[in-house]
Specification:
The chain is α/β, with parallel strands linked by helices. It has 16 helices and five strands. It has two domains: 163 residues, Rossmann fold, CATH 3.40.50; 119 residues, Zinc Finger, Delta Prime, domain 3 (Up-down Bundle). The radius of gyration is 25 Å and the shape is elongated. Bound molecules: zinc ion.
């Protein structure tokens, strides 16, 4: 657990962390920001492990010193995970009991005391102000490592005392490579998830192992593939199958992808640049039967439905109309 080989991308951040630890110039507060699934939690943990590592002669974390060993057990005496106890977000009471009290005493065994606060952007202003007391005059051994999707929700006074490290979004190809090489996912599928996850490796990993997502993906394909063979009543009745995704109509993104891929095949005549490579044969056959205008009209119908659902239009009505349009434009 928690070794540099677990990290894919984010080389810049790793570089900054390593040089801070190697030079001994560790700041008192770091905020790791970035989109969900870009590795913030992993980086926070690796950084804490690096800071506490006792053998800094080679690559850090060394993975063999006593600190490295105890770190992975989750019971490192000088690494404190600040967690919410009463509400969803860390509140002022949590900061008092888990940070202020603990920061006042010296590390138990190692040279620093590291506090990890995840989702720091959900901290109330009250909690942040309370944290500020320690940030303003930090005991020499205290290091905060916070994670946040965006630094905007943090008080300027907290930000000005912290070093901001940004995670990077990875190119789709890199993510696909990771899925194929490290997780053994077949290449055509890995390529799909890499593109679909839009720069988030965490999201790609999650989706690639999610049965629910693959079920939804398959359902959309089955529906689309039946547009040519079923009559309009049967086709629009598919709305009942999609109803269970009412709360999170992500299936519309798959519809979009489907038409995007068809359009690409139509335009360039091959499947080199499509996202759903695992469905290449089907898509090629479909593209042959379609006009560009029809594909474009169907894509528009999907985008319209997406927009309407975002503004709370009746789900069944909206999706039924979309399916009707798709059927109408399938010749
Ligand atoms: Zn070590």
């Amino acid at each position: 657990m928690y070794s540099l080989s677990d990290i894919f991308g984010n080389r810049n951040t790793i570089e900054k962390m390593s040089s801070a630890v190697k030079s001994g110039q560790i700041s008192h507060s770091y905020i790791i920001t970035g989109s969900p699934g870009t590795g913030k939690t992993l980086l926070a943990n690796i950084f804490a492990k690096m800071i506490q590592c006792e053998d800094k002669s080679g690559s850090i974390p060394c993975l063999h010193c006593s600190s490295c060993n105890v770190f992975d057990s989750g019971n490192h005496p000088d690494v404190i995970y600040v967690v919410p106890t009463k509400r969803k977000a860390v509140g002022i009471d949590d900061i008092r009991t888990q940070v202020l009290v603990k920061a006042a005493t010296k590390p138990y065994k190692y040279s620093r005391k590291v506090f990890i606060i995840e989702n720091a952007d959900t901290l109330t202003a009250e909690a942040q102000n309370s944290l500020l007391k320690t940030l303003e005059e930090p005991p020499e051994y205290v290091v905060f490592i916070m994670t946040a999707v965006s630094a905007r929700a943090l008080l300027p006074t907290v930000l000005s005392r912290s070093v901001i490290l940004k995670t990077e979004e990875l190119p789709a190809k890199e993510i696909s490579k990771y899925l194929a090489e490290k997780l053994g996912i077949p290449e055509d599928k890995a390529s799909f998830y890499g593109e679909y996850a839009r720069g988030s490796i965490g999201e790609a990993v999650k989706l690639s192992s999610s049965e629910e997502f693959s079920e939804m993906h398959q359902l959309v394909f089955d529906i689309l593939a039946s547009a040519r063979t079923s009559d309009i009543t049967t086709f629009t009745s598919n709305v009942s199958l999609l109803e269970k995704y009412k709360q999170n109509p992500e299936f519309l993104d798959i519809f979009t992808l489907f038409y995007r891929d068809l359009m690409i095949i139509k335009l360039i005549g091959n499947t080199d640049y499509i996202i759903q490579k695992d469905k290449a044969d089907f898509l090629t056959a479909e593209a042959r039967k379609e006009t560009s205008q029809n594909i474009s009209d169907k894509l528009e119908a999907v985008l319209k439905a997406k927009k309407e659902l975002a503004s709370n239009v009746n789900f069944n009505l909206c999706v039924e109309l979309m399916l009707m349009k798709i059927k109408e434009k399938t010749t």
